[in-house]
Recover the amino acids of this structure.
């Protein structure tokens, strides 16, 4: 893992893993997340959608971050199967990218605390923008010959249609029930997962310097049928522009562009 970190810094000297305090591999992934979060603190919730399976997550701790991964990643790193080893390497690099981006945004907060919080409507949309950006950045900068972009594109293909149908159905039910808290409790995690799926795919596409239409016409057609291709293209273009300007960000509030 140290070697991967050194290789990443060789490619991108500005990368920093200073906030990383520990890495844990565990056979009981959710238990490890709870233990690392500590008593009295909410543990991050891994993706539980049918089409999404989380094997790695960064947990914020008082003095930095702690990366937790399922033991399958550690076993993959020493596997004799090249595809399994490549998958594990991508997961580790992906989580290290999350650490780097956390370190970067933390430094912005320390420099400009007065410019580091969302307000009004943007505060409600910030979790979606952050999910979209975080997965885009981590997938774009962890990609290499060891990466399989189809994993992210298959997730987009498999997840978005069902998420779209479930949220639309919930909105229709709300028209009769008028229970807004119930609608939000159901829809918010669904839409956030959709944002993550967009981010994963956008990062994989950006790393290959292509477009979704060129790389994955089937997935592009799916978004067209659902009326989401305009949302995809706006998100992709905005992510690309944010990434281009990232060295000059004044604060993490730049994600409001999303």
């Amino acid at each position: 893992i140290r070697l991967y970190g050194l290789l990443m810094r060789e490619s991108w000297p500005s990368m920093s893993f200073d906030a990383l305090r520990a890495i844990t591999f565990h056979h009981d992934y959710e238990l490890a997340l709870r233990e690392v979060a500590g008593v009295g603190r909410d543990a991050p919730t891994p993706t539980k959608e049918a089409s999404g399976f989380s094997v790695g997550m960064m947990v914020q701790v008082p003095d930095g971050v702690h990366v937790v991964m399922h033991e399958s990643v550690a076993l993959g790193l020493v596997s004799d199967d090249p595809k399994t080893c490549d998958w594990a390497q991508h997961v580790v690099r992906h989580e290290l990218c999350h650490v780097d981006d956390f370190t970067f945004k933390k430094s912005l907060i320390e420099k400009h605390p007065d410019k580091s919080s969302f307000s009004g409507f943007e505060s409600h949309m910030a979790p979606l923008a952050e999910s979209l950006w975080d997965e885009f950045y981590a997938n774009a900068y962890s990609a290499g010959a060891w990466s399989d972009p189809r994993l992210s594109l298959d997730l987009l293909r498999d997840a978005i249609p069902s998420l779209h149908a479930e949220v639309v159905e919930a909105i229709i039910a709300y028209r009769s029930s008028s229970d807004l808290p119930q609608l939000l409790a159901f829809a918010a995690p669904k839409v956030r997962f959709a944002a993550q799926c967009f981010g994963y795919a956008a990062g994989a596409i950006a790393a290959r310097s292509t477009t979704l239409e060129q790389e994955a016409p089937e997935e592009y057609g799916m978004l067209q049928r659902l009326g989401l291709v305009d949302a995809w293209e706006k998100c992709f273009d905005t992510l690309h522009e944010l990434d281009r300007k990232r060295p000059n960000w004044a604060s993490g509030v730049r994600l409001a562009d999303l």
